[in-house]
Amino acid sequence: MILLSTFLERRPPARRVAVKRVFVPCRRPALRAPTTTIFTTGVIASILLAAIGAVAATTNDLSDAEVQGRRLAQQLCNTGPAENITNTGVFTIRDAKKRLLKIPVRFQITAAQAGSPSWEACYETTGTNHWLLTINHSANQPNHYRLVRQDEPVDLTGNETAIPFAGSDFWVADFGLEFLFWPEQTILKKEFHNNCACVVLESTNPHPATNGYGRVVSWIDEESGSVIEARAYDGSDKPLKDFNLKSLAKVNGHWQVEAVIMDNDQTGSRTRLEFDLKKQ
């Protein structure tokens, strides 16, 4: 449901474009988004305005909200990191019986080389429960997933990515923002959510897998472009999972996310991913 490289590095946002704000600013320290998904309020506004202008040129029956939603999803998918990123963290998994399991994890994001549209993200657990997930991202192309478990590699596509990573509540699909690649994307509204001015995006899977995501509603912070919450529903439109950002810490003068949480509403389990925010 969320590309975790989004939280591995926080940078000052790009210089804002002068636009009229609909909402008052968030009443909290500004979340500094990385280059993986930098969208200032002005950038998001320009995307939506361009989408409105494109409606007249479309030949199908898409509504304004659908055109805007598709453009926003595409921009989020295509924005890659400006430089390489490496970090570590720990999964804390609490199952339905309240038992806890901690799994160390390492992240490595490799930015696109000059002249190349592709960039790569690797997520690897350390210790006895060894998993390695590599995602290759290319502009305007589906993600390519390769998962290695017990030295056995397998390539995954589409609904095949709706499987837990290392026994956590995060699925392989969540690491690649797979829901943004679905064809049905709709801007529902703008609203103030968790003290942030947000664009609310609904993503619908036309062919959901059994027990997979059928629909995802995400709240995208207009200030930073980060997905601050996402709620997933199964193919029967029953609540399935809920993703939230938690805890901010100031490191070397920048606000960084300390943890993200994924709750599974149907199993009662929860996974908390805490990042290593050691000062460099």
Topology, please?
Layout: H1 41-54, H2 64-78, E1 85-94, E2 100-110, E3 118-125, E4 131-138, E5 144-149, E6 152-156, E7 184-193, E8 196-204, E9 215-221, E10 227-233, E11 239-251, E12 254-264, E13 270-275
Antiparallel strand pairs: 1-2, 1-13, 2-3, 3-4, 4-5, 5-6, 7-8, 8-9, 9-10, 10-11, 11-12, 12-13
Which features would summarize this protein structure in a list?
280 residues; mainly beta; outer membrane lipoprotein receptor (LolB), chain A; 13-stranded antiparallel beta sheet; 2 helices
Number of folding domains?
1
Given helix and strand content, the structural type is mainly beta
Give the helix tally: 2
H/E series:
HHEEEEEEEEEEEEE
Compute the number of strand runs.
13
Helix content: 10-25%
Distance separating the two termini = 29 Å
Main beta-sheet strand count, sense and barrel state? 13 strands, antiparallel
* Widest sheet: strand ordering: 6-5-4-3-2-1-13-12-11-10-9-8-7
Relative strand content? 35-45%
Q: Report low-confidence residues grouped into runs of 5 or more.
A: 8-43, 45-59
CATH architecture: Clam
Describe this structure in words.
By secondary structure, the chain is mostly beta strands. It has one domain (4-12, 28-267): outer membrane lipoprotein receptor (LolB), chain A, CATH 2.50.20. The protein contains two helices and 13 strands, in the order ααβββββββββββββ. The chain has helices spanning 41-54, 64-78; strands at residues 85-94, 100-110, 118-125, 131-138, 144-149, 152-156, 184-193, 196-204, 215-221, 227-233, 239-251, 254-264, 270-275. A 13-stranded antiparallel beta sheet has the order 6-5-4-3-2-1-13-12-11-10-9-8-7, covered by helices on one side. The two termini are 29 Å apart. Mean pLDDT is 79; it is low at 8-43 and 45-59.
